[in-house]
Amino acid sequence: MIEAVQTTHAHGLGLYEAVEVVDGGDPNTWPPGSRVISHASDRSMVERLHEAARPPKEPGLIARLLRRR
What we know:
Elements: H1 2-10, H2 43-53, H3 61-65
């Protein structure tokens, strides 16, 4: 999703998300000429995806005492 957003933004396009239109496990639902990539070869992209998937970090003791979020 990160790469899709970056690409659409770079080309001045919009991005719409549709659920259950394309099934990664069923090639019959794929648009003609498309392919599914099961792993990312770009290590920085993998790290960004892992970072984005993490839950938000809880504030530390000092931040809680000073009521900062």
